[in-house]
TrEMBL record, chain A:
Organism expressing this protein natively: Aeoliella straminimaris
Transmembrane found in the keyword field: yes
Domain of life: Bacteria
Keywords attached to this entry: Membrane, Nucleotidyltransferase, Transferase, Transmembrane, Transmembrane helix
Coiled-coil parts of chain: none
Transmembrane parts of this sequence: 49-75, 96-113, 119-138, 150-170, 182-201, 222-241, 247-268
Protein name, per record: Phosphatidate cytidylyltransferase
GO molecular-function terms, A-Z: nucleotidyltransferase activity
GO cellular component: plasma membrane
GO biological process, one term: peptidoglycan-based cell wall biogenesis
From TrEMBL, chain B:
SMART domains, sorted: PlsC
Alphabetical UniProt keywords: Acyltransferase, Transferase
Taxonomic path: Bacteria, Pseudomonadati, Planctomycetota, Planctomycetia, Pirellulales
Organism: Aeoliella straminimaris
Residue ranges constituting the Phospholipid/glycerol acyltransferase domain according to the UniProt record: 31-151
Name of the protein: 1-acyl-sn-glycerol-3-phosphate acyltransferase
GO molecular function, one term: 1-acylglycerol-3-phosphate O-acyltransferase activity
Domain of life: Bacteria
Example of a GO biological process term: phosphatidic acid biosynthetic process
Pathway it works in: Lipid metabolism
């Protein structure tokens, strides 16, 4: 199959899978006598709606590199808004925050667009890291100084720097754009699938809760089982669309995505518990914020980017 | 018309405001919306948070010294159909409350910020007596408490560059002046109504 045909096949498969899941979800919602927890069915259907939105938005990746980078910039910007909104800051942080939002975030994506890996890979972790405490120090408010600096730095790193590696995947193979766009899709698809697999394993076989203070439903069984079954799904995916050259490459990357997605969800949950909220935002009423949906991708993107880079060269 | 659309959209995008009505519904009946005041954008924000038919019948009260300076501010004030109140020179029969009552007539609602000026946003300051006299002279007006959250972080006092955090606006249930209630009791009750919406936020 040619690259374009493969893209169409992939899009068709995704739409078919989502349609099946939607039909099942609707049937479950109408069959109360099955004895399923209605809250869980509702949560499943809510997730599905979010997945439809994500897949529709992500389809621009097949069409245009520019639009994809713009899309991820907007997502980063919104996620950072949600992150900083939940983080207590003081008046002294105002100017630093202004530069974080209107200089570092657009500049990072501009460099991603220019494909300058050498600069964007250090812009935020080095220059942003140094700039933020300096600007807050100039503002002259010393109360909980280090804590405030760290909060802004983490927000910028998670929401902008880490997520920025997702559109950067499009430049992994300069000669084959279609292949890169499928790699980006693979990352997003696998993090959504592994999220679902974690959920199923937690419900069916979960015994040992990892950390009851943070999330009472996440278990070790769910984490390991989710990662193993994600590898299986990845191998099936490999047979059809060949994101990597070797079967074991795909299996390994799938497992990594599952584990990193788990790490992202866990870390973001810790922040939410600390602030005493359930969700980061209310962009769509009842579905949480943007950051609640992309936490897994934020953590998986940089790891995926670097591992895929190594595997493609090998 | 176009300026209205542009300003409303900009205010919403910039502040990312989510609007909530708690035990209360948007209505075109005559009302006094009273809100906490932490930033210059507050007026625009509360006004844009109302549904269009209600917004057309709602006039913010704004400080004349701030909103009549330059050329863009008077223009904006005109779009919002704001009533400019002189807070420096107050004459007999020309008190802000009298002007407001004359301006709203039997049709309009009004948005006021009873703290008098912008506060730091850490707490809600004491209310000035204007709200009490409004309620006393026009007992038919519904008084709606409004809490604006986070605007003090988006555009704090003394800053001119906004940071695009997410704010939220909560409208509460109406209250009226009770029979035999003193001025201080009433103002304290009104202030607590705003603070109660703040606790709901957290």
């Amino acid at each position: 199959m040619t690259a374009i045909q493969l893209n169409w096949a992939l899009a068709g498969t995704i739409v078919a899978l989502l349609s099946v899941a939607t039909v099942v979800g609707q049937l479950l919602a109408r069959q109360p006598q099955l004895g399923l927890n209605p809250a869980a069915v509702n949560a499943f259907n809510g997730r599905l709606r979010a997945w439809w939105i994500i897949c529709c938005l992500l389809s621009v990746a097949f069409l245009s590199r520019n639009l994809t980078i713009l899309l991820f910039f907007l997502i980063s910007f919104w996620a950072l808004r949600e992150f900083i909104t939940l983080t207590p800051t003081r008046h002294g942080d105002h100017r630093a925050l202004f530069w974080v939002f209107f200089l570092f975030t657009p500049l990072h994506y501009l460099l991603v667009w220019l494909n300058r890996y050498d600069i964007y890979s250090i812009l935020i972790p080095v220059y942003g890291f140094l700039f933020i405490p300096l600007r807050i120090a100039i503002a002259g408010d010393t109360k909980r100084f280090l804590e405030r600096v760290a909060k802004i730095q983490s927000g910028l790193l998670v929401c902008v720097y880490c997520l920025g590696f997702a559109p950067a995947i499009l430049d992994l193979d300069p000669d084959n754009y279609a292949k890169c766009s499928r790699l980006l899709f693979f990352l997003v698809f696998m993090s959504l699938v592994s999220e679902a697999l974690h959920f199923v394993w937690d419900r069916l076989y979960g015994r040992n809760v990892i950390s009851p203070n943070i999330n009472g439903t996440r278990t070790w069984e769910g984490m390991l089982g989710g990662a193993a079954s994600a590898a299986l799904v990845g191998m099936t995916y490999q047979l059809a669309f060949q994101p990597f050259n070797q079967l074991w490459h795909t299996a390994l990357v799938s497992m990594l995505i599952a584990v990193m997605g788990f790490a992202g969800a866990m870390t973001m949950s810790a922040i939410k518990r600390d602030r005493g909220v359930k969700d980061f935002g209310t962009l769509v009423e009842g579905h949480g914020g943007v950051l609640d949906r992309i936490d897994a991708i934020c953590f998986a993107a940089p790891v995926f980017y670097h591992v895929a880079k190594m595997l493609l060269v090998a | 018309m176009i300026t209205e659309a542009i300003l409303t959209t900009t205010a919403r995008l910039l502040s990312g405001a989510s609007v909530r009505w708690v035990d209360s519904q948007p209505d075109t009946c005559q009302r006094v919306y009273f809100a906490n005041h932490t930033s210059h954008l507050d007026v625009v924000l509360v006004w844009s948070a109302l549904p269009q038919d209600v917004r057309r019948l709602t006039r913010p009260a704004a400080a004349k010294d701030y909103w009549s300076r330059g050329w863009i501010r008077p223009h904006i004030a005109k779009v919002y159909n704001a009533m400019l109140i002189d807070r420096k020179e107050i004459k007999v029969h020309q008190s802000p409350v009298d002007i407001m009552l004359r301006e709203i007539g039997q049709t309009y609602s009004v948005i006021i910020f009873p703290e008098g000026g912008r506060s730091s946003g850490e707490t809600v300051g004491d209310f000035k007596s204007g709200l009490y006299y409004l309620a006393k002279k026009r007992p038919d007006l519904e008084l709606i408490p409004v809490y604006i959250d986070n605007m003090n972080r988006i555009l704090p006092r003394g800053e001119f560059l906004p940071v695009p955090l997410l704010s939220s606006i909560t409208f509460g249930p109406p209250l009226w002046l009770e029979a035999g209630e003193t001025k201080n009791e009433f103002l304290e009750r009104a202030r607590n109504a705003v603070l109660k919406l703040r606790e709901r936020e957290r």
